[in-house]
Amino acid sequence: MLANHRKCLVKTRPLKASDLNRVIKTLSATKAPGPDHVTAQMIQELPPSGQKILLQLYNAMLRLEYWPTKFKPARVIMILKPGKQPTEVSSYRPISLLSIISKILEKLLLHRLLSDTHSQDWIPFHQFGFRKAHSTIQQCHRLTTIINKTLEVHQYCSAVFLDISQAFDKVWHQRLLLKIQQTLPPNYFNILQSYLQTRQLVLTYNNSTSQPVHMLSGVPQGSSIRPTSLNPQIQPYAHSLMTQPSYPTTQIPSRPLETYKPTSKVLKNGLANGK
């Protein structure tokens, strides 16, 4: 099922001026700029000729399936949490600032990806995190519905909650790229591979800035692609846990895996020994 996209090459359609204008209008002028110091307000005040050049740049990147190195650095600012000791590393909240020019293309690429592919083939139907029209409240309704149906037929229902700590920061690039290669069309794999490779960050605190550090794992904080990138990682486990095991009918059959963001809930129901 997941290999269907690999059998047919989806030709990347050129971006249109209307696509770019739609994203530019959604930019927040109060957002801090990235290492290139280009602000959202600068982009919003570009004349039509400037937007045309920006559109040509984006279409060239998509055509070449290449993410320029100049768009990859991140500047990380450490913010002290209220009431925390400044001498403890865990007392700081890192804020990653990325290039606005790069983030615009991320949004355009993500929108194009979702429109060019069938998301149900690579995002499980029970995956609620990072999906439009799939909220926490809906997942809670889904959970309680399964519990109520189980009780109505005099069965029991158990739940296991799995929380993956620092899920985004610990994503292994090689495994993520392998899952993307197995799931998405080749042209999207190539540009996402270019996006992840040779990324660097610098740490800024007070008036001091560290030397550039290579990112060997994780997806950049603040990236529009960051939430969706976890879906190919979760998908194999979600489908494997949905598979019905070869148990006798008197034993516990598995129920679908419910997922919301990095937290997973595994539901199982079975005969309640006559209760």
Specify the number of helices: 11
Major sheet: 5 strands, mixed
Which series of helices and strands comes N to C? HHHHEEHHHEHHEEEHHEE
How far apart, in Å, are the first and last alpha carbons? Answer: 40 Å
Question: What proportion of the residues form beta strands (DSSP E)?
Answer: 15-25%
Estimated radius of gyration:
22 Å
Secondary structure: helix percent: 40-55%
Spans of 5+ residues with little confidence (pLDDT < 50)? 1-7, 243-275
Structural class: alpha+beta
- What is the residue-mean pLDDT, rounded to a whole number? 77
Q: Which word captures the global form?
A: globular
Strand element count: 8
Provide a descriptive summary of the structure in words.
The protein is of the alpha+beta class and 275 residues long. It has 11 helices and 8 strands. The strands form 2 sheets. Strands 1, 2, 4, 5 and 6 form a 5-stranded mixed β-sheet that branches. It has a 3-stranded antiparallel β-sheet with strand order 3-8-7. Helix 8 packs antiparallel against helix 9. It is globular, with a radius of gyration of 22 Å. The relative contact order is 0.16.
